[in-house]
Amino acid sequence: MGNLWQVNEDSFSTNLKQIQSQETVFTIGNGYFCTRGTFEEGYPHETPATLLFGVFDSVPVSKEELANAPDWIGIQLFVNNERFRLDKGKLLAYTRSLNLQNGVLTRTVHWESPAGIRVRINSERFASLADEHLGLIRYSVTVDESPKDLPVAISLRANFNAARGNYDVMHWETTDQGHSSDLLWLQSETRKTNVTLVQTMSFNADTTAFQKEFVDGDIEPSIRLVGSLNPQESVTTEKTVVMCTSRDSDDPLKSALAHHQKILNTAAEETAGNAHNVFIFDYQLQKQDEAWAHFWQQADILIEGDDKAQVGVRYNLYQLRINASDDDSRYSIAAKGMTGFGYRGHVFHDTEVFMLPFFTYELPHIARNLLLYRYHLLPAARKKAASNGYAGAQYPWESTLNGEETTPPSIVHPETGEVIPVLNGFIELHITSSIAHATWEYWRVTADEKFMRDYGVEMLLSTALFWDSRAEKNEQQNDYTISNVIGPDEWHEHVNNNAHTNFMAKYNIKIALEALKWLQKTAPSKANALIEQLDLTDERIAHMQDVQEHLRIPQDPVTGLLEQFDGFFKLAKFDQEKYKGRKDSYQGILGVHEIQKYQLIKQADVLMLLTMLRQEFDYDTKKVNWDYYFPITDHDYGSSLTPALHAILGSELGHTEEAYQMFMKGTLVDLENLRGNTPEGIHAACAGAVWQATVFGFAGLRVTEEGYTTDPHLPHNWQRLSFQFKHKGEPVHIDLKP
């Protein structure tokens, strides 16, 4: 397969959906911003986007969305006044490659203009992991041949394009623009949320024969380099861009200009160059290599014997890294990260259930920030609980910066075209226990006692209080029930006693009470303050214990089979054989209401419970539930979230081949656009599930108070699986062979 650190594209397809899918695949980023893999020269109906971590603007219905910033990558090339673009002239050769090892995107094009001039274009770009405000492009043009060997006029125009929106919605307004002798800058402001963004640019050529011109303008300010090349001559240019927002600095213009000039001056000093025309790409690339090497030293997974899986796993790890800020706890990771407009940059339980384990085990400082995001939003979660008549903290199904519920009340169904109500924000509750579970797991793995003392216990108790008040006492059966919910399987609404919801609520209360006991022993004054703050009377704690002990779990006491919710077993069976070769989900085929009559599941529900709390269930319980639920789950067109997650339970039960198939559905979901929606952004939760499938599934890693164990179930073609993780701050190396 060649280089196992590269994602390659060896030919150019004019299919627009393929182009837009590849824009997502070839996204570069560094956690502060991500930029989709559009072409510097543009292309008709492309979907360019640069999204910045936590920079939102308001929209109707869905409250707010990540605001697509002015496009910074644009470089227009004119060859004897004919514009180079992939839909013009004649394409002779084309390759594109994303180097996962250092985050550099490279493209080489051999092109013939309508007038018969042949040129080679090579572009390289990256978002600096060493300097989160910095983006760089190196762009080279070589004239291969021209009619009569005449010189060829070359014009290169590097710009900021302010006419970019989220599809048809424009979020930025230019408020100022200008240039100095070295730098051009554009200042923009979001229309509703009033976030200021400043972008600065320098654009230099490796020859003084090209003249530089600054062109001011509110929509497309640019720097032009104009000259000529004889056949076999080249020009190489570098476009350096710095981005800074009012979330970073009170004066982002001053900060961005100073930072940019410092970058140029430092490079000039290091290379003995001229700060007014310095080339910095190689200098910054060295820092980029070092920053990514540090990441891969900690997070890489080595797979021998399966090249496709190796590249796929590394690609998913790359995506997890570029979509998470290294030091900002004001925002989290969205369902599509910052790679596209899908889900508008909203944060779901995708982060805590699917992605956060990777960070907990590999980059705990980022995991801490992701949990602090939830801690900061406790006041909003308490407000949501109170507005629904409950105590404690109820987290929203979708959230952005202020923690309010941002789930739209209705949407147009993407497959059926129906306008359907979206009930998730009202009755899909399990995100609250997912956050509690992630908090507990973070503490269990990292032993970060300061976090637990100052933040974690409060989160656990606040969420437990919600479940305590949400559960309803059934006097006849002397138990508690939770009615009218949506479980993880979102194809069934208004259900009672969803097994996942109830068991996770029970577990939430259990760990909260354990955390309180720990706090009372280790920081009694803090515990007393928290007890007073949350009004945790002896009666309330006794009630919580009663709910925890008697919350109804619909489970056969003999076989261990869990009923997904009350009445699920009475639903009609569905003959899936009739729909072989389908290209839609079962909900898309049957409709939103009809599917609720059948035992068909969108995504792991009971099986996700058995995976998340695998230590709570024995082998026989896992087996009987796998045998029942796995066959009735829509693994292909239901949810992208859980195929890879199924690999954990499947591996443990010895279903290694099925586990591998599920793992690969997750691994390749974006690289091969398996679900047809990669143009809207990567499946970030799936990336996290791929890591979990590899480490918890095939390696069988289990971490306990005493240490760790592995129980490997490697796919038949894997000759080696090697990785490392951190346990209580200490690195642990795992190296497994059949």
UniProtKB/TrEMBL annotation:
Q: Give yes or no: UniProt keyword Transferase.
A: yes
Family, per entry: Belongs to the glycosyl hydrolase 65 family.
Does the record's keyword annotation contain Transferase?
Answer: yes
Q: What is this protein called?
A: Kojibiose phosphorylase
Identify the residues that the record assigns to the Glycoside hydrolase family 65 N-terminal domain, covering every copy.
16-247
Q: Name one GO biological process term.
A: carbohydrate metabolic process
**TM helices/strands, residue ranges:** none
Instruction: Provide the Glycoside hydrolase family 65 central catalytic domain boundaries.
Output: 314-692
Supply the alphabetized keyword list: Glycosyltransferase, Transferase
Which Pfam families did the record assign?
Glyco_hydro_65m (PF03632), Glyco_hydro_65N (PF03636)
Q: List the InterPro entries.
A: 6-hairpin_glycosidase_sf (IPR008928), 6hp_glycosidase-like_sf (IPR012341), Gal_mutarotase_sf_dom (IPR011013), GH65_N (IPR037018), Glyco_hydro_65_M (IPR005195), Glyco_hydro_65_N (IPR005196), Malt_Pase/Glycosyl_Hdrlase (IPR017045)
* Taxonomy, superkingdom: Bacteria
- Per its record, what are the GO molecular function terms? carbohydrate binding; glycosyltransferase activity; hydrolase activity, hydrolyzing O-glycosyl compounds
Q: Which residues form the active site?
A: 490 (proton donor)
